[in-house]
Amino acid sequence: MTEGGGRRGGLLAALAALMAVTAIASIRFGAIDFPLRQMWTATVAIVSGHTPATLDGRIFAELRLPRALLCLFVGAGLGVGGTLMQALFRNPIVEPGLVGTSSGAALGASVFFVLGAALHVETAAWTLPLAACVGGVLSTWLVFALAETGSDGRASIVMLLLTGLAVNALCLSGIGFLSYVARDPQARSIVFWNLGTLSGASWRAVGIVGAVTTVGTAAAAMYAKQLNALMIGEEEAAYLGVNVRRLKLTILAVNVAIVAVATAFTGVIAFVGLIVPHILRMLHGADNRFLIVGSAILGGTLLSLADLVARVSLRPAELPIGIVTSIVGVPIFLTLLRRRRYVF
């Protein structure tokens, strides 16, 4: 193993250990604190296929544990999405929702909150995530359709970037209009959903988000070397044998799948996808072989920490996690930025 590979492996191991500690703390503390012994007993019961006998044990098994796992997967997906988009657009201020996925999902959810109530649609467990996911996919498709202006039907990076900004603005206007015409309970639902929440976590959500995030991260890792070549430039990457068009479509598809599914179950959670890749570049440079795996680990860690703060700072009440991600993430980011020289 080379020196760089050894340092990369050491950093990933340290990040994984930090994620484990953060996840355990996130599971243990909240409106109810669980002793470690009780956590272990309940975990053994779950793994054995049994339901914990006590009320606290059932709270642990049915609420706290799936919430913590969903938090890890959503954070991992947002972190990986941010790395992919910043590498693809070669731009340090890009986040996963740039191509309209997050804002479209928010618009889909807002339509559900307003029209669903008017049409007396039942708020089933799947209805809201489905509406959000459809909104995210449709808005992303709109970005692609409008960005394809070349004679060969190809979309340039610049056109995708500008079209994504325009469609995001359009979706935000739609959300604003729906918030204006909505009645008070509906408007509050729109506001809270757009600030992100993990309160609806379930084992089913963990399974879906976990499967999509894991497969998406593995697929992205397979293209890490090609993304390194793309960071030099599209022509240079093509000279090195990279099929640039196929790479762009693949990376965008992976990002849309990860972000749309995560946002559908948790609402819009900003800042994680933007900040995580930058922190990792400060630690070990811009090699996407490190960034993709590291983003999955650090994204889950950062979101778990934010969720812990959201639940314990005003307990038994809970802050919207979208507010806490910025409060927790900004000081970390600025501290690292002041201590280390950083070039994108």
What would your notes on this structure say?
- This protein has 344 residues and is mainly alpha-helical.
- 76% of the residues lie in helices and 0% in strands.
- The protein has 14 helices and no strands.
- The radius of gyration is 20 Å and the shape is globular.
- The mean pLDDT is 84.
Task: Kindly list the characteristics that best describe this protein.
76% helix; mainly alpha; 344 residues
Chain-wise SSE layout:
Elements: H1 3-28, H2 36-47, H3 55-89, H4 101-118, H5 127-147, H6 157-181, H7 184-194, H8 203-222, H9 224-232, H10 234-239, H11 244-266, H12 272-284, H13 288-312, H14 321-339
Helix pairs in contact: 1-3, 1-13, 2-3, 3-8, 3-9, 3-11, 3-12, 3-13, 4-5, 4-6, 4-7, 4-11, 5-6, 5-11, 6-7, 8-11, 12-13, 12-14, 13-14
Summarize the structure.
The protein is mostly helical and 344 residues long.
Low-confidence stretches: none
Distance between the termini: 26 Å
Mean pLDDT: 84
Structural class estimated from helices and strands: mainly alpha
Share of β-strand residues:
under 5%
Total of helices: 14
Order of helices and strands: HHHHHHHHHHHHHH
What general outline do the C-alpha atoms trace?
globular
Radius of gyration: 20 Å
How many distinct beta strands? 0
